[in-house]
């Protein structure tokens, strides 16, 4: 049995050289919340990892592992307390250029007063793309997610799965260098979810976009990812960076019944169970540290 | 399985201060800012008046308004009129609440009545209460009954509409649950409909309390029903400008007190009602 | 009964009953205050002649329209600014709390000091000031209550300030703005009437009070009915505009409730 585990390649990192094939680089990220009347809550203690251009990486962790905190920090919606998030060689201080986020709350991340087309168009307008080109990009994005016929409808007229596809279309039309997805399928039913997973795989493959996919679902993480980053419980550190050596061509039926899939799944499951018990990769932490 | 732990550095020690300010600090900052805002308005008005930028005959210095206000506080007529206004408001509001709740529950719980009265309610509701002023003047002159009718009419509609929303809002699952446990109609009313409608009744109280005060003051000011509103008219027509302003300030403060009380009551009654409801009005 | 007949019965049944009750109860009435409905209806066309409509009703409605429009404009601009800035909000909150609570009719004597009450200015200012607070405060709440995920989305796509304001913040606040505008409109109608009751004036409200003072009771009743009809008409127009502009909101709410 051999799972090749990647250590984050700190050695290869020289501060001056702009990242060539590194799309996203987390360097010693730490986040502490200061809530009133209570001691500080340390959400993320220390995270270091990199995502190469064109990779599809999943992040899983036990519930309350600070996944959303991490994602919001990467998206520039939250300031990190220490360390830095580097996108395309530039440190993230606010929402960075070249990043698109697909939120879990599909119903609430689409502008209900706009049609599907207008929702996708708004960020493109902001980019200053001329009208004809905008329409072309919108049509292409809608075709990618097979929603061409829903273009003139309002988001709330669509089913949950379709709404999330609109959010995905908006993100890919934006052509980000990194696409962040925050538990995007947590609120849709199982069948829709399988469809959307395959959609993400196929978009990733033929658009070559870099994807960071946060989820709490172990199966989903293994099925989708080229790597699975497993987080510990709070305060979050990296449990393990698991390489998923499944064939690139994946299929809900065959891949999920693959022996290797089962092994990887079991391994990640094991890690999450350990994380839940409070096992940490450094030394066993005294229970309740930081709380 | 071979797996090695990822790199881990010790947590960064000290040096970086948390950026989010504590809520308590923010709240006390807000209180100070609020006080500052009030001071800006008061001092600004004082300066405008004292420098003559605004004719002091129209806008006397704030200090004079308050001098007049404190002088009033020592005089019997002020307290008498304050009492008349508050009494008129309270009686009208209470009657509107009682009537609105009873009618609302009856109409709301009978689907036929709800459908049958809908168009009439939608038609009567937007009729401005001031349209009734000439009529009540004919009927009651400057007696408090004039104000009472106007207040009752104006405050009744928001109560009725809220109660109707409340009764309609009863969760069908809760009602079915109650039925499947064979609750009688009275018990359903008490244990299912009433708790659902209660928050709406509290909202009705808040809306009606404000409307009732507006109409009470209007009746006093326009018709001459005894009360603070009438005194405002008298002060203005006798060209006692500081006193006019002082009375307006008092009426405004009554309004603030009414709003605060209504919101307090609403929150007290809603502590268990965690979901956020949209306001229908 | 077919469904159409049933619908018509539900819609018109009670109003017809009420009007009929009024008709028969007042028929042959000799009370000076309660003239027969037939007398009132006969008086209607002779009272509200073209001359009166142009000279009294239109000016009243025009003043209402101007005052209301001013309040909408100022209320949305100021409300958005206050809603977006926590500092401004903290600064303005107690002051707004006071002005909101002042019953609008007491503005009349104060504004009379400044602008007098014979011209249009004082009346328009009264209406505008009375309408302002509900619109302003609801705009503040609407802007503050914007769905946080939408705010995050706008931020993560780096929408510029203006675009965020026009395409995200204002549409998001629009249901609350309409709530405020609806409250403001009914206050506006009240103030339209009250502002005409001071001094010698022309206008719908002034005319009705003159009828009452000169004991022209059937005419007074026609005025009350006309005022009521105008209130109903304004509410209906408002609803049409609201349903058009908030079509997305109405549709969304229907679906949310239907599921």
UniProtKB/TrEMBL annotation, chain B:
Chain ranges passing through the membrane: 31-49, 89-111, 123-141, 147-170, 245-265
Single GO biological process annotation from the record: transmembrane transport
Subcellular location: Cell membrane
Chain segments annotated as coiled-coil in the UniProt record: none
Keywords recorded for this protein, A-Z: Cell membrane, Membrane, Transmembrane, Transmembrane helix, Transport
GO cellular component: plasma membrane
Region annotation Disordered: where it falls in the sequence: 1-25
Membrane disposition: Multi-pass membrane protein
Name by which UniProt lists this protein: ABC transporter permease
TrEMBL record, chain C:
Domain of life: Bacteria
UniProt name for this protein: ABC transporter permease
Similarity annotation: Belongs to the binding-protein-dependent transport system permease family.
Membrane disposition: Multi-pass membrane protein
Domain ABC transmembrane type-1: 57-242
Listed InterPro entries: MetI-like, MetI-like_sf
Keyword Lipid biosynthesis: no
Spans traversing the lipid bilayer: 64-85, 106-136, 180-199, 220-241
Compartments it resides in: Cell membrane
């Amino acid at each position: 049995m051999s799972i090749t585990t990647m250590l984050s390649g700190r050695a290869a990192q020289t501060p001056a050289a702009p990242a060539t094939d590194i799309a996203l680089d987390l360097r010693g990220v730490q986040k502490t919340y200061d809530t009133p009347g209570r001691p500080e809550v340390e959400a993320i203690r220390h995270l270091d990892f990199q995502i190469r251009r064109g990779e599809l990486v999943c992040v899983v962790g036990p519930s309350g592992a600070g996944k959303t905190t991490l994602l919001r920090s990467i998206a520039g919606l939250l300031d990190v307390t220490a360390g830095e998030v580097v996108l395309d060689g530039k440190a993230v201080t606010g929402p960075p250029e070249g990043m698109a986020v697909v939120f879990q709350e599909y119903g609430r991340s689409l502008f209900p007063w706009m049609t599907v087309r207008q929702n996708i168009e708004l960020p493109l307008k902001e980019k200053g793309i001329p009208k004809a080109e905008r329409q072309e990009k919108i049509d292409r994005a809608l075709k990618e997610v097979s929603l061409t016929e829903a273009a003139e409808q309002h988001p709330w007229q669509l089913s949950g799965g379709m709404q999330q596809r609109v959010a995905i279309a908006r993100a890919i039309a934006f052509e980000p260098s990194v696409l962040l997805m925050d538990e995007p399928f947590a609120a849709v039913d199982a069948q829709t979810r399988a469809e959307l997973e395959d959609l993400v795989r196929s978009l990733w493959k033929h658009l070559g976009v870099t994807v960071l996919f946060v989820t709490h679902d172990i199966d989903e993480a293994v099925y989708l990812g080229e790597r699975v980053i497993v987080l510990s419980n709070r305060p979050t550190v990296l449990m393990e960076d698991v390489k998923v050596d499944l064939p690139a061509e994946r299929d809900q039926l065959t891949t999920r019944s693959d022996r290797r899939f089962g092994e990887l799944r079991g391994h990640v499951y094991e890690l999450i169970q350990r994380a839940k018990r409070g096992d940490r990769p450094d030394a066993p932490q005294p229970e309740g540290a930081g709380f | 399985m071979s797996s090695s732990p990822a790199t881990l550095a010790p947590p960064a020690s000290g040096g970086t201060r948390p950026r989010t300010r504590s809520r308590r600090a923010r709240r006390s900052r807000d209180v100070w800012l609020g006080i500052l805002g009030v001071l800006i308005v008061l001092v600004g008005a004082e300066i405008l008046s004292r420098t003559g930028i605004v004719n002091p005959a129209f806008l006397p210095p704030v200090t004079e308004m308050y001098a007049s206000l404190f002088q009033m506080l020592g005089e019997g007529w002020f307290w008498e009129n304050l009492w008349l206004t508050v009494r008129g408001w309270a009686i009208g509001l209470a009657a509107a609440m009682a009537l609105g709740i009873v009618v609302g529950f009856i109409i709301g719980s009978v689907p036929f009545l709800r459908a049958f009265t809908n168009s009439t309610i939608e038609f009567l509701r937007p009729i401005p209460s001031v349209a009734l002023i000439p009529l009540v003047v004919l009927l009651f002159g400057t007696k408090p009954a004039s104000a009472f009718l106007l207040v009752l009419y104006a405050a009744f509609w928001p109560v009725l509409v809220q109660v109707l929303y409340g009764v309609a809002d009863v969760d069908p699952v809760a009602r079915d649950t109650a039925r499947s446990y064979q609750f009688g109609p009275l018990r359903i009313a008490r244990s299912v409909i009433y708790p659902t409608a209660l928050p709406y009744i509290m909202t009705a109280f808040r809306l009606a309390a404000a409307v009732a005060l507006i109409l009470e003051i209007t009746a006093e000011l326009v018709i001459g029903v005894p009360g603070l509103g009438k005194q405002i008219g008298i002060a203005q027509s006798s060209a006692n400008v500081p006193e006019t302003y002082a009375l307006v300030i008092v009426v405004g403060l009554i309004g603030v007190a009414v709003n605060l009380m209504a919101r307090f009551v609403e929150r007290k009654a809603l502590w268990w009602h965690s979901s956020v409801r949209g306001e229908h009005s | 009964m077919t469904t159409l007949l049933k619908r018509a019965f539900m819609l018109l049944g009670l109003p017809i009953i009420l009007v009929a009750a009024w008709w028969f109860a007042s028929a042959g009435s000799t009370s000076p205050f309660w003239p027969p409905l037939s007398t009132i209806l006969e008086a209607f066309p002779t009272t509200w002649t073209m001359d009166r409509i142009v000279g009294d009703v239109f000016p009243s409605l025009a003043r209402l329209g101007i005052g209301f429009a001013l309040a909408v404009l100022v209320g949305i601009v100021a409300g958005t600014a206050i809603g977006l800035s926590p500092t401004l909000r903290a600064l303005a909150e107690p002051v707004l709390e006071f002005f909101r609570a002042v019953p609008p009719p007491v503005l009349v004597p104060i504004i009379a000091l400044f602008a007098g009450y014979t011209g249009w200015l004082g009346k328009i200012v009264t209406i505008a000031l009375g309408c302002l607070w509900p619109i302003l405060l609801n705009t503040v709440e609407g802007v503050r209550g914007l769905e946080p995920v939408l705010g995050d989305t706008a931020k993560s796509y780096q929408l510029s300030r203006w675009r965020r304001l026009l395409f995200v913040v204002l549409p998001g606040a629009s249901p609350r703005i309409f709530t405020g505008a609806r409250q403001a409109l009914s206050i506006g109608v009240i103030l339209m009437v009250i502002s005409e009751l001071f001094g010698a004036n022309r206008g719908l409200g002034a005319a009705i009070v003159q009828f009452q003072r000169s004991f022209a009771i059937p005419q007074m009743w026609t005025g009350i009915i006309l005022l009521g009809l105008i209130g109903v008409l304004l509410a209906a127009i408002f609803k049409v505009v609201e349903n058009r502009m908030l079509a997305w909101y109405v549709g969304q709410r229907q679906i949310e409730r239907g599921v």
